[in-house]
């Protein structure tokens, strides 16, 4: 039996890094998706092929961690096989629109889609909370100490406020008057290493970092209110403050600063790094009737721009 599933990527608008220490964060699912096709095999193996990475790997059951980029996918598929009591293997084929190492939740989207497709191929539909929980375990292999926001947004879609100790709250937000633009620094980075570096800084200077984390949490709460009211001027101003807090904990770069300031000077409502920082992408919020001028200026400082829509559909499956 064969099944296909897809899950969206995400953009964090508020709270990255701070969410790891149980501060709230806000993320939106975006219109780039990871697609996974799962096909049952008679052999007791897991075969994984990624079109994007041009990589393939075959694992015996249970799969052993060989530090290959495809191992977390095999682990996610095996978790489903094991849960559902399967005595066969599975082939996983990945085709993702989400750029890797960009802070857009590519690995979580692949994990979520893999889990959903594997279960569907076995004739089962897992509950969304099960899919998210199992994807979180796969994310731990990739990122070490993930926040949990990536697997949550990939599973449920839409706009959410998330806190580790409380779970997520779906936000009722209308994005019709504004655009989200992602600007690439052209510089990849490791989320796991950056998360560890920030946590090490927190552990070294807790009395200094705690007020910054608290401020980021209050900022996210206020931003959620402003988003639901449609006060985009306020949302943009809070994005700018959030970027300053992220710079304070050491995750911005020269390339990110150039993009952020170019966007603001061109008339953006707000601009900040998104994801782990250290490279990757900046997210720019602008009025739809101003996006042309802003894109023109951003092309001078960014090798790649993505204009995105918010995706209300989370993980979906089909046979």
TrEMBL record:
Q: Name one Pfam family in it.
A: GHMP_kinases_N
Q: Which GO terms describe its biological process?
A: isopentenyl diphosphate biosynthetic process, mevalonate pathway
Q: Where is the active site?
A: 150 (proton acceptor)
What UniProt keywords are attached to this protein's entry? ATP-binding, Cytoplasm, Isoprene biosynthesis, Kinase, Lipid biosynthesis, Lipid metabolism, Magnesium, Nucleotide-binding, Transferase
Protein's UniProt keywords contain Protein transport: no
Q: Which residues form the GHMP kinase N-terminal domain?
A: 76-158
Write the Enzyme Commission number(s) for this entry.
2.7.1.36
Ranges for domain GHMP kinase C-terminal come to 227-301
Q: Where found?
A: Cytoplasm
GO CC terms in record: cytosol
Q: Which cofactor does it need?
A: Mg(2+)
Q: In which pathway does it act?
A: Isoprenoid biosynthesis; isopentenyl diphosphate biosynthesis via mevalonate pathway; isopentenyl diphosphate from (R)-mevalonate: step 1/3
Catalysed reaction, written as an equation: (R)-mevalonate + ATP = (R)-5-phosphomevalonate + ADP + H(+)
What one GO molecular function would you report for this record? Answer: magnesium ion binding
Top-rank EC class of the record's enzyme: transferase
Quaternary context: Homodimer.
What's this protein's function? Catalyzes the phosphorylation of (R)-mevalonate (MVA) to (R)-mevalonate 5-phosphate (MVAP). Functions in the mevalonate (MVA) pathway leading to isopentenyl diphosphate (IPP), a key precursor for the biosynthesis of isoprenoid compounds such as archaeal membrane lipids.
**PANTHER family in the record, alphabetically?**
MEVALONATE KINASE
Q: Which family does it belong to?
A: Belongs to the GHMP kinase family. Mevalonate kinase subfamily.
NCBIfam families, per this entry? mevalon_kin
Query: What is the protein's name according to its record?
Result: Mevalonate kinase
**Which source organism does the UniProt entry give?**
Infirmifilum uzonense
């Amino acid at each position: 039996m064969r099944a296909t599933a897809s899950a969206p990527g995400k953009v964090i608008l508020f709270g990255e890094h701070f969410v790891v220490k149980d501060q709230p964060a806000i993320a939106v699912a975006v219109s780039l998706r990871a697609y996974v096709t799962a096909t049952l095999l008679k052999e007791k193996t897991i075969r994984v092929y990624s079109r994007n990475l041009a990589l393939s790997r075959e694992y015996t059951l249970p799969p052993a961690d060989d530090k290959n980029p495809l191992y977390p996918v095999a682990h996610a598929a095996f978790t489903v096989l094991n849960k559902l009591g399967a005595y066969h293997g599975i082939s996983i084929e990945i085709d993702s629109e989400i750029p890797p190492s960009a802070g857009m939740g590519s690995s979580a989207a692949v994990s979520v889609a893999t889990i959903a497709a594997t279960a569907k191929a076995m004739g089962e539909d897992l509950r969304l909370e099960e899919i998210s929980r199992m994807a979180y375990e796969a994310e731990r292999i990739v990122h070490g100490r993930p926040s949990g926001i990536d697997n949550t947004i990939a599973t449920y879609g839409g706009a959410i406020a998330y806190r580790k100790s409380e779970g997520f709250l779906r936000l009722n937000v209308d994005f019709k008057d504004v655009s989200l633009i992602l600007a690439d620094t052209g510089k990849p980075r490791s989320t796991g290493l950056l998360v560890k570096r920030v946590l090490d800084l927190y552990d070294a200077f807790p009395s200094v970092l705690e007020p910054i984390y608290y401020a980021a949490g209050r900022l996210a709460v206020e931003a959620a209110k402003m988003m639901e009211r449609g006060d985009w001027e306020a949302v943009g101003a809070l994005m700018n403050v959030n970027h300053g807090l992220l710079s304070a904990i050491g995750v911005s770069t020269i390339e990110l600063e150039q993009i952020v300031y170019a966007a603001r000077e061109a008339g953006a409502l707000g601009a900040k790094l998104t994801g782990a920082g250290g490279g990757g992408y900046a997210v720019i919020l602008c009025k739809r009737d101003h996006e042309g001028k802003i894109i023109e200026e951003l092309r001078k400082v960014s090798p790649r721009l993505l204009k995105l829509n918010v995706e209300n559909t989370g993980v979906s499956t089909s046979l």
